[in-house]
Amino acid sequence: MRMHEHPTINYPEYHWPAGKRCAVVFSLDLDAESPFLWLHRGQQVQQLGEIEQRRFGPRQGLARVVRLFAEYGIRGSFYVPGVVAQTYPGLLPFLLEGGHEIAHHGYYHERIEAIPVAQAEDYLVMAQELFCTQTGLSGLGHRAPSWEMTSDFLQTLERRGVSYDSSLMGFDHPYHVGNMVEVPVQWTVDDALYFRYTNSPRDKTHPANPGAVLDSWIEEFEGVRETGGLFMVTLHDWISGRSQRLRLLRKLIAHIRHDPQVWWARADEVAAWHAASPNRDLYRVPAHSINTHFESATRG
């Protein structure tokens, strides 16, 4: 029995605009304190350590990242939980003034697969209404908290007019999951994997050496360039807004920016390119493709 419904292998090469070899997107998940509050929802929280560490993001870290982007002319994609936009009402206008994309990232940084689909839709609608009130914008993109997704919620995103999703990793360039454009992410180029540390039981090791991470990210970029993919960098306000990580980012940007084969873009621009390009019909997989029942193999 096949594990899913799509047997195709050996896809053709992806084509980027203007003959570019690859695309680069710098994205930031502006979580602030929302994951901590979601994890401890319904509980009386006394400790201040992690929540203050996370509040460094909207207080200082975000502005520092935005200044670095402005220095190099980078327009980034910022995925913002609704409660963060509500708590910091000047945040979305600040990002738009810099030419950056704003997109949805849950409301409370809730994990989609852990709540009923109706509740997940309610949170999405709350976020859409809040963003529209604060900016006048609708039809924005979406990235799921913790990068988890369900088939049902993909259909919800489509029904609610979300323009694209950026949560999955089925290709290293844009593709369709059902009717939804997917702009893929990648764990290897996510700062939280290396630097997230709050001195809690969830932390298994100390933060990584930034020099080693820089080498790893440069190698990943070079590999993506060779294969013609998307280099999607994912940052967090309270992590990469720190001085050490800003220096890492500066060195990474300096390495990439001299390559004329790179298309520097926002995630919404990548999604729009894919939806209007000849690529759109070449990379399409079904949303319902999970089969957790395996029949025992028998031999005649």
TrEMBL record:
In terms of PROSITE patterns, this protein maps to:
NODB
Domain (NodB homology): give its ranges: 47-265
A matching Pfam family: Polysacc_deac_1
Show the CDD domains listed in the entry. CE4_HpPgdA_like
Name by which UniProt lists this protein: Polysaccharide deacetylase
Identify the species of origin.
Verminephrobacter aporrectodeae subsp. tuberculatae
Q: What is the lineage of its organism?
A: Bacteria, Pseudomonadati, Pseudomonadota, Betaproteobacteria, Burkholderiales
